[in-house]
Amino acid sequence: MTNLPNFIDSHMKNNLFQRFFLQEDLNFLLTNRVPRLLLTRWMGWFSQLKSPVLARLSIRVWRLFTDLDLSDARQQQFASLHDCFTRELRPGARVIDPDPGVMCSPSDGIVGACGRVVDGMVLQAKGFPYSIGELFGPSQDPSAFLNGSYITLRLTSSMYHRFHAPQDMTVEHVTYLSGDTWNVNPIALARVERLFCRNERAVLRARLTANGLPIALVPVAAILVASIRLHFLNVLLHLRYRGANEMPCAAACVKGQELGWFEHGSTIIVFTPPGFELCDGIETGRQIRMGQALMRLPVVTA
Q1: Spatial distance between the Cα atoms of 239 and 222, rounded to a whole number of angstroms
Q2: Is 194 helix (H, G, I), strand (E, B) or coil?
Q3: Which pTM value belongs to this model?
Q4: Does one domain contain both 106 and 81?
Q5: From the CA atom positions of the chain, what is the Rg in Å?
Q6: Is 249 a member of any domain?
Q7: Which of 25, 64, 182, 228 is in the most buried spot, having the most CB atoms within 10 Å?
Q8: DSSP 8-state secondary structure symbol assigned to residue 105
Q9: Residue 154: beta bridge partners?
Q10: How far apart, in whole angstroms, are the C-alpha atoms of residue 282 and residue 72?
């Protein structure tokens, strides 16, 4: 039986820790005004140390600052912190929306800015616009998404970190853009202009199987996270990666198929051309799970 006084005491301590570190000025200072690249590289090394004891202790500390829930994880014991970050889910933990006219969420996340791409500009937060041309990089033409829709999905550190195909599609090209590792939480997004365009990121260009329309997924890395693994490319994209930045491919994926993962928590921005509509209930601040309805495909008329 749970010891109620100990439970209450532990719960209050966790809340105090979380409230302390959620103070905006302190949060921004601790997660941005630090040597971000060095700290991120150190975290990459530390997280992969193989020690179940160290992993358990690290997870306990992690839980002081987040609402980490491992109940839906395939495994419950981890050899390293990295294994916990990149955990797989037990079968049936996520349900993929079966409607062929719906594009599902590629990841768990909290909905950030979303809406229309107006004159090639979108929002990272109120009053902080950025150009999709800058986000995609100089080698990519974003014109297919002008006047289309976009949605930002923020993955917190405690969330499931793998991302999946939102529809039956073929990934045709990946562009890797190295960069900084600013935190991508709302506090930083409201203070750092063009943050997504500064951070390390990958631009995945794909084409839907059903109608041939293009979509783009842009995973953006962040502090402690700068490492992106894509299953269909035999490379690990990270701060020390010095390989080709342009990677043509022809990776056919079915809806819900795992594409890759982040190694902590970050952001995925989804772009679609005109005609797509956000599904009912998709709005800033909503928490969503991978597989839930995100956007409705254009209706094709004869």
Answers
A1: 11
A2: coil
A3: 0.83
A4: no
A5: 19
A6: yes
A7: 228
A8: P
A9: 110, 267
A10: 24
The Cα–Cα gap between 132 and 93 comes to 34
Residue of 164, 180, 227, 238 marked active site? 164
Asked if 171 and 232 touch (Cβ cutoff 8 Å), the reply is: yes
Residue 164 is among the residues annotated as catalytic for this protein? yes
Asked, for residue 97, whether it belongs to a domain, the answer is no
Chain centroid, CA 121 distance in Å: 20
Q: Which tens digits make up the pLDDT trace of 29-46?
A: 445 455 555 666 666 666
* Residue 259 tokens, joined: 């594409």
What are 44's strand-pairing partners? Answer: none
Of the residues 47, 105, 107, 108, only one is catalytic, namely: 108
Please give the tally of structural domains in the chain: 2
Last residue of a domain, one of 85, 116, 135: 85
Residue-range definition of the domain harbouring residue 26: 4-85
d(CA 87, CA 118): 37
**Percentage of the chain exceeding pLDDT 90:** 53
Q: Are strands 102-104 and 293-296 parallel, antiparallel or unpaired?
A: antiparallel
Residues, the chain? 302
Residue 282 lies in a domain: yes
Choice among 105, 149, 157, 266 that is catalytic: 266
DSSP 8-state symbol, 89:
B
Q: Which pLDDT tens digit goes with each residue over 214-271?
A: 999 999 987 665 578 889 987 777 666 677 789 999 999 999 999 998 766 689 999 9
266 is catalytic: yes
* Residue 206 backbone dihedrals phi, psi, to 5 degrees: -135, 165
For 273, which DSSP code?
-
58 included as an active-site residue: no
> In this structure, is residue 90 part of a structural domain?
no
Contacts of 187 (CB under 8 A, 6+ apart): 24, 27, 28
Distance CA 180, CA 135 (A): 13
DSSP string of 132-191, one letter each residue:
HHHHH-TT---GGGTT-EEEEEEPPTTS--EEE-SSSEEEEEEEEE--B----SHHHHTT
Burial of 227 (0-12, 13-18, 19+ CB in 10 A): buried
